[in-house]
Known about the structure:
The protein is α/β, with parallel strands linked by helices. The protein folds into 2 domains: 28-113, Rossmann fold (3-Layer(aba) Sandwich); 139-272, NAD(P)-binding Rossmann-like Domain (Rossmann fold). 40% of the residues lie in helices and 16% in strands. It contains 10 helices and 11 strands. It has helices at residues 6-28, 43-59, 74-85, 105-111, 123-131, 139-150, 170-178, 198-203, 254-257, 271-288, and strands at 2-3, 33-39, 62-68, 92-95, 159-163, 187-191, 207-210, 228-231, 235-238, 246-249, 263-264. The strands form 3 sheets. Strands 1-11-8-7-5-6 form a 6-stranded parallel beta sheet. Strand 5, helix 7 (170-178) and strand 6 (187-191) form a beta-alpha-beta unit. The longest helix is centred in the N-terminal third of the chain and has 23 residues, at 6-28.
Amino acid sequence: MKIIDGKETAKQIKKEIAAEVADLIDNKGKDPHLAAILVGEDPASQTYVRNKEKSCSEVGILSSVYRYPSDITEKELLEAIEYINNDDEIDGLIVQLPLPDHISEKRVIESINPAKDVDGFHPMNVGKMMLGLPTYLPATPYGIIQLLERYDIETEGKNCVVLGRSHIVGSPVSVLLSRKANPGNCTVTLCHSRTKNLKKIAKSADILIVAMGQPKFVTHEMVKKGAVVIDVGIHRVPSDETKSGYKLVGDVDFEKVAGVASYITPVPGGVGPMTIVSLLQNTLKAARKEVYS
């Protein structure tokens, strides 16, 4: 069994991004600039945005965070997005999810200028992804694809099972792995909470991608010997083994599944770091006008 080290891979990609950012600044005098909108005080969102700021700083990308209280109206938030859409100094814009219940996530995503939508959630960018056209790929699926590529994991002709159908991870990664590309050319089965015989289907996978949002959902009985296991989940659970009283686990029972898998991502340190570097790569594409010129 080999560990797919997302933390180390992300570190290497950051070096590549930093060199490309420096080249862009030297040749075009352009500093890539990523803006994030953060609504409310959700601790996980606060941490994630801080990590994005830190990562931007490490590679030479400018970052701005627009913070708003949780009682901001939808109209006010849409006006803030429009302001950033019209700011030529900002290349990429992300709105940190989840949003308060009184704000429509759909309306917010659709209001972002597709050319600045480095999260890859705008319907125009999702459509481009579906058609295999140049676009910003959603960050987590993009990170997963890069891990498979950099670890030379064969995907062509393999059975890939994706557990979870969210528009953020499950659905887009199933599209990307079914495409005529490398990594790609998989036969993909997309499962969800209503899938019958889910355990049996999971066990048929050569590549198992798990994004169910349930701690330790996948046990070793659900994994074929020699399968590649990509764990997208991250959960804080109580633990007597740590000083903090909790530990982070994924959607996969890592200790037991590691004994069956050929490759496996840990939690933390697997897919998570790759999500942020993928966002940085999309921001660099936006600054270069690679997708929308």
